[in-house]
TrEMBL record:
It comes from Candida parapsilosis (strain CDC 317 / ATCC MYA-4646) (Yeast). The lineage of its organism: Eukaryota, Fungi, Dikarya, Ascomycota, Saccharomycotina. This is Ribosomal protein S2. CDD domains: RPS2 (cd01425). The keyword ATP-binding does not apply. Keywords: Acetylation.
């Protein structure tokens, strides 16, 4: 008799009894076929769903394209003359007479359903249709003149401004023209929102459009850093009247003295320029911004400038130094109107400036010595390390800061420009007076023979 243990059969061997484990789930042939068929059905269902979704996407795309094309055709149809419309309707009726009536009825139903479901026309297009004379919203009659005016206004709104603009469909991206127009519309509606900065400092204005001395205040000088001097160790004792105090080991310049000295210097520059004097700007700074301001100031003042290096003997030994100038066009005389004369400059003639303006006098001590020996007045930006007694009209100011140097240079060149303008106005007025006097003299000379004949 065979025994059972935990529901498992025991088999007898020749030597002993042993337990043979039986697998819990042994798949049969029917179950395997059922599993495979279920997997295939699932994959088939997924493939069919994807195909239906792709077909729906393609169909919706075709409907959108057809809708846009239909709108364009409706727009063209609205602009078609009545005579052409009658001809097309007659031809269409002739073609439809060859088709069975049931198919025509089915086609009409499909077109009506398509128009109701997909064609969402705007009110201006609906009101402008020849076959519709009612407003869908208000339910009132619309006259032909009113509909024509609305259509023309809507058309002119876009075609007059953007005649070459072609709108893109809703499912496509915006074109470059539409993006540009949207940006312009955003700037018109929302571009002015937010904070607005006013009185913003722009460094190029000190060169292109500098302020005049009447527009300059102490706050402008302080903002430009004109009050910052050198270290107290490099202080000159004669500069004491221009010192305001010390801060963190440097001297502070009194800007009240600065603006007072600047006003005096501007009056001198304006007077020299008005009398036709030669003004020479000397600035050997290596900063490109100061170099540009120096050139612009010399052009504005109708003067001259030295920007690279001061050649020793340019004033005191002019005859020897001028021999290095080989080009004769570099030597020419000008009149009071700053126009070149035909007379050439001889080699023995000595030309000296009437006023020298120095931007960095410490580096140009040779120029100062030559001006002192030739009795030429000088104007210089004197820092706390400069001896102001060597300068005729010293201006206490920071001579190393780019902004302060450009500001001072622009103010002084503006004063020279005012003097040049006043001189040219005087010359113009003088020429006008001479012309009127000559004209009057000519008229008197023409009238004298008649008066003599009448006397005889």
């Amino acid at each position: 008799m065979l025994r059972t243990s935990f529901g498992r059969p025991l088999r007898r061997s020749l030597v002993r009894y042993y337990v043979e484990p039986v697998p819990k789930h042994v798949p049969s042939n029917n179950n395997l076929e059922h599993t495979l068929s279920h997997k295939e059905l699932r994959e088939q269902a997924i493939a069919e769903a994807l195909a239906r979704e792709e077909e729906a996407i393609q169909k919706s795309k075709q409907i959108r394209e057809l809708t846009e094309k239909s709108k364009e055709l409706i727009t063209v149809l609205n602009k078609t003359p009545t005579t052409l419309m009658n001809e097309r309707i007659a031809k269409l009726n002739q073609d439809l007479s060859k088709i069975p009536q049931d198919k025509i009825k089915q086609l009409d139903e499909q077109l009506r359903e398509y128009m109701i479901n997909n064609m969402h026309l705007t009110d201006d297009i609906i009101e402008n249709r020849p076959w519709a004379n009612k407003n869908l919203k208000n339910g009132r009659k619309i006259s032909a003149k009113e509909s024509e005016s609305k259509a023309s206004s809507m058309t002119n709104q876009y075609t007059s401004q953007f005649p070459n603009l072609k709108p893109t469909p809703d499912y496509k991206e915006y074109s470059e023209q539409e993006l540009y127009l949207r940006q312009l519309d955003h700037l018109r509606t929302s571009g002015a929102l937010g904070s607005r900065l006013e009185n913003v400092y722009k460094p190029q204005r000190d060169t292109t459009n500098p302020p005049s001395i009447t527009q300059t205040t102490i706050s402008n000088l302080m903002a430009a850093g004109c009050h910052l001097g050198h270290a107290t160790s490099s202080f000159r004792s004669n500069f004491q009247p221009f010192i305001y105090g010390t801060y963190n080991g440097i001297h502070l310049i009194d800007l009240n003295q600065t603006i007072s000295q600047l006003q005096t210097a501007c009056k001198v520059i304006e007077g020299v320029s008005e009398k036709g004097g030669v003004i020479l700007f000397v600035g050997t700074h290596k900063n490109w911004s100061i170099q540009e301001s120096l050139v612009a100031a010399a052009e504005r003042a109708k003067g001259y400038y030295v920007s690279k290096r001061w050649i020793p003997g340019t004033i005191t030994n002019y005859i020897e130094v001028s021999k290095q100038i080989k080009d004769p066009s570099m030597k020419q005389q000008i009149d009071m109107e700053n126009k070149p004369l035909n007379s050439a400059v001889t080699s023995n003639s000595i030309i000296k400036p009437d006023l020298v303006i120095l931007l960095n006098p410490v580096e140009n001590r040779n120029c100062i010595k030559e001006c002192l020996s030739a009795c030429i007045p000088t104007i210089a930006l004197c820092d706390t390390d400069m001896e102001p007694s060597l300068i005729t009209y010293p201006i206490p100011c920071n001579d190393e800061n780019v902004r302060s140097v450009n500001l001072m240079l622009g103010i002084m060149s503006k004063a020279a420009e005012a003097g040049v303008k006043r001189r040219l106005d005087i010359i113009k007025q003088l020429k006008e007076t001479e012309r009127q006097a000559a004209k009057q003299q000519l008229q008197e000379s023409q009238q004298d023979p008649f008066q003599e004949g009448a006397a005889l």
